[in-house]
Amino acid sequence: MYAVHNNVAVRTNWAEKKMAGADWFSGFLKRHPSLSIRTPEATSLSRATAFNKHNVDQFFDNLEEVMGRHQFEPQSIWNMDETGVTTVHKPNKVVARKGYKQVGSLTSAERGTLVTVSCAVSATGNSIPPFFIFPRVNFFDHFLISAPTGSAGGANPSGWMKEEHFVDFLKHFVVHTKCSKDRPCLLLLDNHSSHLSVDGLNYAKESGIVMLSFPPHCSHRLQPLDVAVFGPLKKHINTASSAWMFNNPGKTMTIHEIPRIVAAAFPLAVNMTNIQAGFQASGIYPLNREVFPQSAFAPAFVTDRPNTDPCRASDALVLNYTQNGAPTIHQSQATNTVHSSDLPTSSGHRVTTPVELRPFPKAGPRKETRKRKKLTSSILTDTPVKERIEAEKTFTQQRMKKTLFSKTEKKKSKTSKRTSKKRKEQNTESSSDEEECFCLVCVEPFSNSRPREKWLQCIMCKQWAHKDCTPGLSVYICQNCDSGSGSD
Question: 396: which of 47, 231, 319, 405 lies 20 to 30 Å off by Cα?
């Protein structure tokens, strides 16, 4: 379609199939040796759209602010994050004979049990011992017998970190970094709900920890641990897990083996080279806010919407082409436009660009399905931010208590209604039964009885009669039963 639109001669079968053939594609790769077929990394839509120029600039503005305020040295700049380690590993690649479609490798089970491992690294390449969270109700010290020296841990039935575990991690962090108000440290972390603990923020401020959060869904580019450490760590953990399965045939891996496996993989992956490469690639240290080219924000273009405020100028990113045909992206006042002044030409005619032929699709209006607080990069330990988080936590707790109280009251009211209805039914049944009871002597119904009037029941036929109509004996036998027994 692109060649036909630019009046380029194509083969007949191309025009019939409306696409180029495989021979042209192989020749295209030979003519351009710098290109190759690669497997793309899966990136969620949330990460692709959240990693935009605005969010990244906001993070670096906050980073420059705290760096200028405290003058942090590289040994005082830390990054922490959690990763999950399961008892079912991903087998490594093996060499096998051609022609076999399925090549198997043993794993411990079908589904594994998750253990959370929290790591913290500094810009100089140092690291502290990991912090483990086991999927148990109670934590015992023997869980860490084979863990790296100096490790700490906690327990949670789900295996995930909660607010109380984050406070324990901060205490573990202070013990190994020796930070204080006189020697503060910068801790970079994501906006996970457990990291927004009020107790954790108070403890961090008292201990001299300045906490700066990343923008939501941007940790895959801005967080050093995600960029250069966790990938090699997972690879070495898989290798160590495969070795454990080989050395323990017929056994199932449990969570008690994970600390030993992490101890074997931790020094191989969490080393100075990987850590420093992660800080440099994310632009945190050395500080470089221009580390990401404009093309890195291209996936977020689909959510660029025109500015409805005419008083403010738009800073939309626009795709342009240089003289050699390479695409570049720059700032422009227009939205979704292409500059054609520098477009490549052929035989004096301007060549139509692919963007003009098929413009980038734009996402529709955002639909808010539920009211949810939008998080941004912020200095969490600053007093205004900390007070806002405390107010939001208090409001959330009060609302949850109110909702729980209303649910309890509704449940009580339903139970009381159900009980009263049952009692009414029982009373109705008993009253109907009582109305059918007649005195054996005077044949007067029970409903006409006087208050506190006593009735006696025949011990043989179980029929009732007024006490005044009977001889008044404690053991009552009606005349019918008494005459029958006398005839015998």
Answer: 47
**What is the secondary structure of 415-429 as a DSSP string?**
HHHHHHHHHHHHHHH
Would you tell me how many other CB atoms lie within 10 Å of the CB of residue 2?
A: 13
- Give a yes or no: residue 244 inside a domain: yes
Query: 444-471 burial, b if ≥16 CB within 10 A, otherwise e?
Result: eebeeeeeeeebbebeeeebbbbeeebe
Contact 185, 76 (CB under 8 A): yes
Say which CATH number the domain at 475 has. Answer: 3.30.40.10
DSSP line for 120-171: EEETTS-B---EEEESSSS--GGGGTTSPTT-EEEE-TTS---HHHHHHHHH
CB distance 164 to 133 below 8 Å: no
One domain for residues 65 and 198: yes
| The pLDDT value given to residue 336 | 42
Cα atoms in the Cβ-side hemisphere of radius 13 Å centred on 445: 8
Do 78 and 183 belong together in one domain?
Answer: yes
Between the ranges 325-339, 343-357, 423-437, where is the mean pLDDT highest?
343-357
128 assigned to some structural domain: yes
**Per-residue pLDDT tens digits for 23-61:** 888 998 999 999 988 888 788 888 888 899 999 999 999
Q: Is the dihedral of CA 255, 257, 259, 265 positive or negative?
A: negative
List all residues 6 or more positions away from 315 whose beta carbon is below 8 Å from its beta carbon.
Answer: 53, 331, 333
Q: Is residue 330 part of a domain?
A: no
Do residues 126 and 144 share a domain?
Answer: yes
**d(Cα 21, Cα 19) in Å, to the nearest integer?**
7
Indicate if 168 and 83 belong to the same structural domain.
yes
pLDDT band at 316 (very low <50, low <70, confident <90, very high): very low
Say what the pLDDT of residue 339 is.
Answer: 46
pTM for this prediction: 0.71
Whether 154 and 264 map to the same domain: the answer is: yes
* 79 beta partners: 121, 188
Number of domain units in the chain: 4
Question: Cα–chain-centroid distance for residue 145?
Answer: 30
Of 3-7, 42-46, 268-272, the range with the highest mean pLDDT is 268-272
The position carrying tokens 């022609």 is 99
CATH number of the domain where residue 49 is located? 3.30.420.10
* Chain segment 164-196, per-residue pLDDT in tens: 999 999 999 999 999 999 999 999 999 998 999
Contact 229, 269 (CB under 8 A): yes
Range of the domain at 470: 438-487
- For the chain, give percent helix, strand, coil, nearest 5: 45, 10, 45
Gap between the Cα atoms of 384 and 163, Å rounded: 20
118 and 259 belong to one structural domain: yes
Whether residues 204 and 160 share a domain: the answer is yes
Same domain? For 455 and 409 the reply is: no
